[in-house]
Amino acid sequence: MMAAAAARPTLALLASASASLGAGRRAWARLAVSSSSSAGSALPRLRGRRSVASAAGGAVMGKAGPGAVDADAGMNTVQRRLMFEDECILVDEQDNVIGHESKYNCHLMEKIEAGHVLHRAFSVFLFNSKYELLLQQRSATKVTFPLVWTNTCCSHPLYRESELIEENCVGVRNAAQRKLFDELGIVADELPVDQFIPLGRMLYKAPSDGKWGEHELDYLLFMVRDVKLNPNPEEVADVKYMNRDELKELLRKADAGEDGVKLSPWFRLVVDNFLMGWWDHVEQGTLHEAADMETIHKL
């Protein structure tokens, strides 16, 4: 929590300069959050990039080499940076941290099928004061699941001190705040970390195409908050608030294959298993009553 609080003034200042800085503001925002070190009081300081992996007995594979970069020469520059520089948190099926690995390796189906790259993730469901859910369509440049419709924001806590804090899911909440700024331009002051409500965890595996896919232990975070949006086109193609009936129509189109509508597999799993019941709690102001962070749902 302290790490997120320390980052807020910097993030807010960066957001105010977004018109002149353009896409570069996301990179600076990433730097601002990653440099926050006050979380160290809640976690032993990490001794090098591979310390946890080494302790796990070599559970982590090596980083993708130069050949992999050449093979993916068509990848968008921003996406390539994220795929090779971001380090996801590897966990076992009980959500114990066992190492870390590049986002690139974590999303290769050959490595997913080998069973070594289950990683921690989060999915944010942000509602406005009219209890409409904010959806995003992922950008066409996304490496996995481009142009699919999904929940407000979906990403990964990274292997850094502020996002490894497990108490009260603080690390995952910090990551959600960071990524909501990266993708949707929502400044930190509008998304207090302590107002993200973790409702549950699910473990799933899903292919994107022949090469890429997901294998995630996903934290499901809810919040009701009116915010200002400034979507990043490198991450997001479109956004839309939807009420229940509008979401049901989107589901119908996806099922019928109309208008090219596709949904992310993790969003569909949440819709089919949890969302409508949790939406009742959103409207009633009783979200905390719905929370179950002990169970890991294998879907």
Automatic annotation (TrEMBL):
<comment type="pathway">
    <text>Isoprenoid biosynthesis; dimethylallyl diphosphate biosynthesis; dimethylallyl diphosphate from isopentenyl diphosphate: step 1/1.</text>
</comment>
<feature type="signal peptide">
    <location>
        <begin position="1"/>
        <end position="19"/>
    </location>
</feature>
<dbReference type="GO" id="GO:0015995">
    <property type="term" value="P:chlorophyll biosynthetic process"/>
</dbReference>
<keyword id="KW-0149">Chlorophyll biosynthesis</keyword>
<dbReference type="Pfam" id="PF00293">
    <property type="entry name" value="NUDIX"/>
</dbReference>
<feature type="domain" description="Nudix hydrolase">
    <location>
        <begin position="117"/>
        <end position="269"/>
    </location>
</feature>
<comment type="function">
    <text>Catalyzes the 1,3-allylic rearrangement of the homoallylic substrate isopentenyl (IPP) to its highly electrophilic allylic isomer, dimethylallyl diphosphate (DMAPP).</text>
</comment>
<dbReference type="GO" id="GO:0004452">
    <property type="term" value="F:isopentenyl-diphosphate delta-isomerase activity"/>
</dbReference>
<dbReference type="GO" id="GO:0008299">
    <property type="term" value="P:isoprenoid biosynthetic process"/>
</dbReference>
<comment type="pathway">
    <text>Porphyrin-containing compound metabolism; chlorophyll biosynthesis.</text>
</comment>
<dbReference type="InterPro" id="IPR015797">
    <property type="entry name" value="NUDIX_hydrolase-like_dom_sf"/>
</dbReference>
<keyword id="KW-0413">Isomerase</keyword>
<keyword id="KW-0414">Isoprene biosynthesis</keyword>
<protein>
    <recommendedName>
        <fullName>isopentenyl-diphosphate Delta-isomerase</fullName>
        <ecNumber>5.3.3.2</ecNumber>
    </recommendedName>
</protein>
<dbReference type="GO" id="GO:0005829">
    <property type="term" value="C:cytosol"/>
</dbReference>
<dbReference type="InterPro" id="IPR011876">
    <property type="entry name" value="IsopentenylPP_isomerase_typ1"/>
</dbReference>
<dbReference type="InterPro" id="IPR000086">
    <property type="entry name" value="NUDIX_hydrolase_dom"/>
</dbReference>
<comment type="similarity">
    <text>Belongs to the IPP isomerase type 1 family.</text>
</comment>
<keyword id="KW-0732">Signal</keyword>
